[in-house]
Amino acid sequence: MSTASPTAASPSTGWPLWISCMLKTKFDFDCQTKMDGEVLLHLYDHFGIKKMASLLDGVFAFILLDMANRRVHLGRDTYGVRPLFKFLTDDGFLAVCSEAKGLTEITHSIETATSIVPFLPGYFEVFDLKLNGKVQSVQFEQFHCCTREPAHALYDTVEGLSSGFSDETVKHNIRSLFENAVRKRLMAHRRIGCLLSGGLDSSLVAAMLVKLSEEEKLPYSIQTFSIGSEDSPDVIAAEKVAAHIGSEHHKVEFTAEEGVKAVEDVIFHLETYDITTIRASVGMYLVSKYIREKTDSVVIFSGEGSDELTQGYLYFHKAPSAKAGAEDSVRLLKELYLFDVLRADRTTAAHGLELRVPFLDHRFTAYYLSLPEEMRAPKDGVEKHLLRDSFKGLSLIPDEILWRRKEAFSDGMMSEKKSWYTYLQEHLDSLVNDDQMEKADKTFPHNPPRTKEAYYYRQVFEKFYPGQAKWLSHYWMPRWISASDPSARTLSIYKPDKDH
């Protein structure tokens, strides 16, 4: 059996398991180290693999080797924020790694065809370990899904939560659980910073982070980071938020030329050819590079997960019913590991940063998804209305930002007059000819590219990872609306936010 540490992509000095200290105390574990990961060994010894996995509150991927019982265990967090890939042959040769690229060169001892697949989030798998080092899968089971309250909620006390679905009760609970999600993620040995696009989600995270860091008396100010061109609506909005919350703000200048140059490196780190993921990753990759080279912030908070959870994408306005919108919200959350959290983890980890995403806190997401479908739907023409309304009147962030319309990160980096995706398309169109496009279905039968931009991404992907197109099951695209491009700015329902 070949193994590579599934946390290799994370620079954390310990596992980001927020509840580890509480569990050590609750069960009176005799821990020999201060590492968060040690609690897994005690939980496994006391309760077995399923309960162990269900009690983990955090982002993780693990390999647990039990030599006494000759068992190998794999597991991955609910949303797949931390990556894990598996390579298993028919005759039982197993290899695992935090990045698929770590498995592509394995050829020895392999006589049967096999494939590299992402390990499904929220699951654990148990293998019998044979004397010859080969394995046989004996159990593959889900330990948590986003619609269920997690088992560790019993040990994660949040004061003042109320039952019932009255507006004020729900909004109070949302605020309390969100604050708890940010507070528990303050556990860090390195300096904390925050990505700040100036949109609703990152602004709420940054504002709550600054507020709680002051309450907890952290010995430094919170650094926030935005990236964009001079006339980027995101950069302008982020500066307003930073001034309001009092963060130490860094504005990273972005040019289309610099972005185009980074595309190949971005695809190498992402291990995908999804169009919108690559577009959005370029800015996040470059701002992460700046953070690593110019500052001492290492633990980076970000707003991923909110759009999927709170129905923030503009196409949710076209959902045929509240039920359909709620179902698609869950679908998006289950697919995050293919798209947004893949982007966020890989672009930050590429530069040695550790990502933290409070909107994907297990308790917060489970509560939000338990609310009536009608409450979670867009209201009065405003997406994420419930989340916005929950923070109304608190002055946590400026009102104009609280009600700012959704702007995709990859769009908001550049002027409304000319989007980042337009620059990309203009540049990449010259690198792919019409003859190549005519043969695209034959050249790339799985997920064939429909545009020259998509064709170029696929070419680069195949250069790095030949024959691995099935790592991506499908492209990310909006629903319930006629769309040939994933950018929100191409949709008929997109309207620039004229005020900001």
Structure description:
The structure is a single chain. The chain contains 20 helices and 13 strands. It is an alpha/beta fold and 500 residues long. It is globular. Helix content is 38%, strand content 13%. A 5-stranded parallel β-sheet has the order 11-10-9-12-13, sandwiched between helices. A 4-stranded mixed β-sheet has the order 1-5-4-6, with no helix packed on it. The chain starts with a strand and ends in a 36-residue tail after the last helix. The chain has helices at residues 20-26, 38-47, 49-54, 167-184, 200-215, 233-245, 256-270, 275-294, 306-309, 322-334, 340-349, 362-370, 373-376, 385-390, 399-402, 409-412, 420-429, 434-438, 440-443, 452-464, and strands at residues 2-3, 61-66, 71-76, 85-88, 94-97, 116-118, 123-129, 135-142, 191-195, 223-228, 248-253, 297-301, 354-356.
Contiguous runs where pLDDT drops below 50 for at least 5 residues: 1-15
Mean pLDDT: 90
From the helix content, strand content and strand pairing, which structural class follows? Answer: alpha/beta
Q: How much of the residues is beta strand, in percent?
A: 5-15%
The biggest sheet, with number of strands, parallel, antiparallel or mixed sense and barrel status, is: 5 strands, parallel
**Number of strand elements:** 13
The portion of residues assigned to helices is 25-40%
Q: How large, in whole angstroms, is the Cα Rg?
A: 22 Å
Major beta sheet, strand line-up: 11-10-9-12-13
| Amino- and carboxy-terminal Cα gap | 56 Å
Number of alpha- plus pi-helical segments: 20
Overall geometry comes to globular
